[in-house]
Specification:
4 helices, binds fe (iii) ion, about 220 residues, about 10% helix, single chain, mainly beta, globular, seven-stranded antiparallel sheet
Length: about 220
């Protein structure tokens, strides 16, 4: 079977907040699904190499912030393309810390909920956590960001640890030859209205916030 057909599956965009050893941390996932209604149980799949995976196993708790279409690409980049093991990924992100020590975003999210792990399943590369919702927002606002919106409108890419990552994500090249690619997150700047060379020196990657200097000509 051609794995490309799995791109027909639909996903959302979520920040998973955890209590870190030094400080709160968070990462971006697209695989949060409701499993049962009573009790309210969700499942989330997180790569073994992610610091978030380690911290959920250590604490048994995490928070889900449901991103909206207004959540900026920079927030997604800050949480999605580096590890919280050594860096403070939330340094430039507006968030609050729940009593349990886990962070929830304040950056144009739709809603949030706090989860307690009730079971988990190991796969070759990812842990699937089953978790019961213990608290959360009473209402939601805005339009939830879908994974399709993230790719199509924000032009975001899937990092290698994403459950839905495909090698083609790196190899797809429909942009003109003179476009520039961010070497951190893979964002391609190919806006003919604003050529890369004419962007101001303090311009940063809209996805991961990296400076102009890390961009390379896509060839
Ligand atoms: Fe970037």
């Amino acid at each position: 079977m051609n794995p490309i057909i799995l791109r027909t599956l639909s996903y959302g965009m979520y920040a998973i907040g955890v209590r870190g050893e030094q400080r709160p941390s968070a990462c971006i996932v697209n695989t949060v699904v409701q499993i049962t209604a009573d009790p309210m149980v969700i499942a989330v799949s997180i790569n073994h190499d992610n610091y978030t995976n380690e911290r959920i196993k250590a604490t048994g708790e995490f928070a889900v912030s449901v991103l909206s279409e207004n959540t900026s690409g920079t927030v997604i980049g800050a949480l999605g393309f580096s590890s919280g093991r050594h860096a403070d990924k939330l340094a430039n992100v507006n968030y609050k810390v729940l009593r349990e020590g886990v962070p929830v975003l304040r950056e144009d999210i739709c809603c949030w909920f706090l989860c307690k792990v009730v079971n988990s399943i190991e796969t070759l590369t990812h842990t699937v956590f089953l978790a019961e919702i213990r608290a959360g927002s009473d209402e939601y606002k805005g339009t939830p960001m879908t994974y399709e919106y993230y790719h199509r409108v924000i032009k975001g890419k899937a990092p290698k640890n994403a459950p839905t990552y495909q090698i083609e994500d790196d190899q797809q090249d429909t942009s003109p030859e003179e476009s520039y690619i961010c070497t951190i997150c893979g964002y391609v700047h190919d806006d003919p209205q604003h050529p890369f060379e004419e962007l101001p020196d303090d311009w940063v990657c809209p996805i991961c916030g990296a400076p102009k200097s890390v961009f390379q000509i896509k060839g």
